[in-house]
Structures are given as C-alpha cells and as structure tokens.
Automatic annotation (TrEMBL):
PANTHER family: SLR0142 PROTEIN, UPF0700 TRANSMEMBRANE PROTEIN YOAK. The keyword Transmembrane applies. Pfam families: DUF1275. This is Permease. InterPro entries: DUF1275. It comes from the Bacteria.
Length: 236
C-alpha cells in the first residue's frame, strides 16, 4: 500500500469529524435549534414545519441548506479549475477558510442574527467536506456520521463473520474512531455551548487548526501514522 497524503490520514479525519460534531451541537444549542453540518436533520425539521403549515419558521432551516449547496458547488468548481493553477491545495485552503470564519464568529457580538452564523458555518463546512473525502482507500464524510456508521457496521461484520481479513479490521477500526469522534464532539460542543455560550466556538476552531497543521506539506511523518510504515521524504 502506498502512503497517503497527510490530509487522507486517520488523525486528520478524526479531528475534522470531532469538530463537526462540536459545530452541530454549537449551532443547535446556541443558534435556534438548527444544524451547521447535518443537513438531513435540517431537511426533516423544515418538512415538519411545512406539514404543520408553519411557513414563517421555514427560513432558518432552508437558509443553511442552500448555503451548504453553494459551498459544495464552489468547492467543486475550484477543485476542477483551481484558479488556473494558483490554488495549490484546495483542501488546505478550504480548511483554512473554515478556521478563519470560526475565529470571526468568536469575535462577533452575540447579538448577530443566528441565521448569519449558521449559514456561514454551513458554507465553509460544505467546502471542507467536499475536499476531505478519503482516509487512504476508504471514502468517508468529514461533517456527518450516518455513512460512517454504515461503513463501521459493514466492516465489523466482514471482519468478524465473512472475510475476517486485515482490511475489514482496518475499516471497522477507522470508522469506529470517526463515529466515536463525532459523538464525543457533539457532547463536548453541547456542554461547552451551555456553559460558555458564544465562546464555545473556539473548541472546534482549535481542532480544525490542529488538522490544518497535520496537513501541511512538510508534515510527511503523518503519513506513517496511517499504516505504521517508515516514510521516505518526498517533494510536496
């Protein structure tokens, strides 16, 4: 197996999805019961309002959904046509944008409308999620946990019942780590937002900053953490 890029390693993925759990709890608890990343939840909540004919309550859920779609579109365009070669690493760029926005949120007054904060986080989170999609050979989602939970279940079943090979064990361990990260992040985010309010945004910002450091091109040793093999230094 070839060594993956640092942004495709398990430590980076774990940091990203733990921060995602924190952000979902942060916006849900502190910003009107709306999710920053879990668009499935927002869609369900939106449809419930429609079913109750509570049309005035639709916009807080619709706005982040549209913002998320816009973030995916922008990230995809930049990945396909990265500013004529000037954007050397879309993944690191999108992650840096998310960090900058969260720091901006930390310094904004709490009186700012909830919708602006949630839609902004949804936009930058969607860009990050579009760029970070793999751990080595495994596809994953860096902002939600449903698909990761499915991959864990199938990997565990293959490891214990069907194939019983190293690859299935790796899959089960990797995706269990991601699911545990999201759950622990959501718990920490909910508690921090309850006690510290607006300032709780520093927690996911710090985790994302750590992930960005691990993704820097000089951080070649991170590749060895993926498979435990020595890594030869290569040009980035």
């Amino acid at each position: 197996m070839t060594n993956p890029k640092p942004e495709r390693t398990l430590p980076v993925a774990a940091l990203l999805i733990t921060a995602a759990g924190m952000l979902d709890a942060f916006t849900y608890v502190g910003y009107g019961g709306v999710f920053a990343n879990a668009m499935t939840g927002n869609i369900v909540l939106l449809v419930v309002r429609v079913a109750k004919q509570d049309y005035a309550a639709i916009l807080p859920f619709l706005a982040p959904i549209l913002s998320y779609l816009s973030g995916v579109a922008v990230a995809h365009i930049l990945k396909e046509r990265p500013l004529f070669g000037r954007l050397r690493s879309p993944a690191r760029t999108f992650l840096a944008l998310e960090i900058v926005f969260l720091i901006l949120v930390a310094f904004l007054p709490r009186s700012i409308p909830d919708m602006l904060v949630v839609t902004g986080i949804a936009l930058v989170a969607a860009m990050q999620a579009t760029a970070f999609t793999r751990i080595g050979e495994f596809a994953y989602t860096s902002v939600t946990t449903s698909a990761n939970l499915r991959h864990f279940a199938t990997g565990l079943l293959d490891w214990l019942v069907f194939r019983k090979n190293r690859e299935s064990r790796r899959q089960a361990v990797f995706f269990l780590t991601l699911c545990a990260g999201f759950i622990s992040g959501a718990l920490a985010g909910a508690e921090a937002t309850t006690y510290f309010g607006h300032g709780a945004v520093w927690l996911p910002a710090a985790l994302l900053a750590a992930a960005l450091v691990l993704c820097l091109p000089w951080n070649v040793p991170m590749r060895g953490l993926f498979n435990g093999e020595p890594v030869k230094k290569t040009d980035s």
